[in-house]
């Protein structure tokens, strides 16, 4: 055996414990040059179901007896091209197992992701190593908030150091999605993940949500010792982006807004497709509905969407929202008055997500009103509605395009909030 191989073939990682959005350098070393090796990543995610995820890449070892994943392209695998984190975003679902729990079981919303990396040579596992990926830094504390009628989770420094405060709103899934807020808090912010429907005493549906609720959230976060004075940002995803843009349009305390996979048109409340003549509003202010598309229910389209979903044919949501936008006069009234926002605006969309053109309405409106604030719309080719956090499992759309868009937009989102703070 050559001196190069006096050690056993192994996987070496730069960090065994790291944040979800932090890249990890992975190296295979002490292998015979020219040998074919396979590296696999496996993860078991346990919530209400047990999911088994797996990815792999096959490489030819270089002359030094190494494979560095961030500089070498696999000859085959679950991803292509040079990508040091390809094993993480190219995961495929290999098994789903139903689990049974009693009523007291609670899923840990921020359980670390544990990966096992396996090195195989000649179909034999010769080494394995575990990697732990965290949703928040150790110096970030998580506090459940049930005050002033608000339902949310606050992420702040353990010692309650005042930092710029950002309110984060999820989408039509309802409740509190803590992943993005927890990770965002690890980059120098106090973050309030706010539920606005779908849990506890909040409305059961996205129907007639009062903007006064958002004003209560703003006033609450302003009063907190963990928040610096005179600056508040807001971030909304999907349906939550409507609420984020509306909140910033109505309340001048918001100095920076990010809309992710969202819309600058206020749409109707989310209710089951039906034969009802009218659709309810999603949002109200002082008891009056915010103008929306569309009060009139396109019944024939609603029934068609029901059939499309039953038969798993086409995209019923795209068809539905196109129908809601069929009347230009109604749409024009429903465009959110983003020109009233007292700060900079960042919009993030995937070109394959039909909602990107609804986000574009914000840019068109801002141009026509010649606002003095900065605004930008990031549109990513090939990516869809799953853009968000980098280096995670994407269940829908083009994984490679989504991974690239998520990495770029996440970095720019963090930069955007910090830059807004500096220019305030």
- CATH level 1 class label of the largest domain: Alpha Beta
User: Which fold name corresponds to the CATH topology of the largest domain?
Assistant: Rossmann fold
Secondary structure: helix percent: 10-25%
N-C termini distance = 64 Å
- Count of individual beta strands: 21
Question: In order across it, which strands form the biggest sheet?
Answer: 11-12-14-13-16-17-20-21
The CATH architecture of the largest domain can be named as: 3-Layer(aba) Sandwich
Give the total of domains.
2
Secondary structure tally, helices? 9
Mean pLDDT: 95
Low-confidence blocks of residues = 1-5
| Structural class label | alpha/beta
* Helix and strand element order: EEEEEEEHEEEEEEHEEHEHEEEHHHEHEH
- What does the largest sheet look like? 8 strands, mixed
Let me know the CATH homologous superfamily of the largest domain. Alpha/Beta hydrolase fold, catalytic domain
Radius of gyration: 24 Å
Protein name: Acyl-CoA thioesterase
Family: Belongs to the C/M/P thioester hydrolase family.
Organism: Heyndrickxia oleronia
Active site: 238, 353, 385
Question: If you had to describe this structure to a student in words, what would you say it looks like?
Answer:
Residues 209-422 form the BAAT/Acyl-CoA thioester hydrolase C-terminal domain. GO terms for molecular function: fatty acyl-CoA hydrolase activity. This is Acyl-CoA thioesterase. This protein has 424 residues and is of the alpha/beta class. It has 2 domains: 3-134, Sandwich (Immunoglobulin-like), CATH 2.60.40.2240; 140-265 and 335-423, Alpha/Beta hydrolase fold, catalytic domain (Rossmann fold), CATH 3.40.50.1820. It contains 9 helices and 21 strands.
């Amino acid at each position: 055996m050559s001196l190069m191989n006096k050690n056993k073939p192994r996987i070496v990682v730069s960090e065994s414990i790291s944040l979800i959005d932090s890249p990890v350098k992975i190296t295979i070393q002490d292998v015979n040059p020219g040998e074919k090796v396979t590296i696999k990543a496996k993860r078991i995610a346990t919530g209400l179901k047990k999911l088994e995820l797996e990815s792999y890449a096959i490489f030819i070892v270089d002359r030094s007896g190494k494979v560095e994943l961030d500089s070498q392209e696999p000859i085959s695998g679950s991803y292509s091209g040079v990508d040091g984190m390809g094993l993480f975003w190219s995961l495929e679902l290999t098994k789903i197992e139903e689990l049974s729990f009693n009523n007291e079981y609670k899923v840990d919303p921020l359980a670390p992701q544990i990966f096992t990396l396996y090195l195989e040579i000649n179909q034999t596992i010769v080494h394995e190593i575990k990697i732990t990926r965290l949703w928040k830094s150790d110096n970030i504390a998580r506090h459940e908030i049930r005050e002033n009628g608000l339902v949310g989770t606050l992420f702040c420094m353990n010692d309650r150091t005042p930092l710029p405060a950002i309110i984060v709103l999820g989408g039509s899934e309802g409740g509190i999605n803590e992943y993005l807020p927890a990770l965002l808090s690890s980059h120098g912010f106090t973050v309030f993940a706010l539920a606005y429907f779908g849990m506890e005493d909040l409305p059961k549906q996205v129907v007639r949500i009062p903007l006064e609720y958002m004003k209560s959230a703003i006033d609450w976060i302003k009063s907190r010792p963990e928040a610096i004075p005179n600056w508040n940002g807001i971030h909304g995803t999907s349906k939550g982006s409507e609420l984020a843009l509306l909140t910033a349009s109505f309340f001048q305390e918001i100095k920076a807004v990010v809309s992710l996979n969202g819309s600058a048109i206020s749409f109707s409340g989310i209710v089951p497709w039906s034969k009802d003549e009218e659709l309810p509003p999603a949002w109200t202010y002082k008891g009056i509905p915010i103008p929306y598309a569309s009060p009139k229910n396109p019944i024939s389209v609603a029934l068609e969407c029901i059939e499309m979903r039953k038969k798993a044919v086409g995209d019923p949501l795209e068809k539905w929202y196109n129908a809601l936008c069929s009347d230009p006069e109604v749409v024009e009234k429903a465009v959110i008055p983003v020109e009233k926002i007292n700060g900079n605006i960042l919009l993030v969309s995937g070109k394959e997500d039909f909602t990107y053109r609804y986000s574009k309405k914000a840019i068109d409106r801002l141009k026509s009103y010649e606002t003095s604030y900065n605004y930008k719309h990031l549109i990513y080719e090939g990516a869809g509605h799953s853009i968000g956090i980098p280096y995670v499992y994407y269940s829908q759309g083009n994984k490679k395009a989504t991974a690239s868009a998520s990495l770029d937009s996440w970095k720019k989102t963090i930069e955007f909030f910090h830059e807004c703070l500096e220019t305030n």
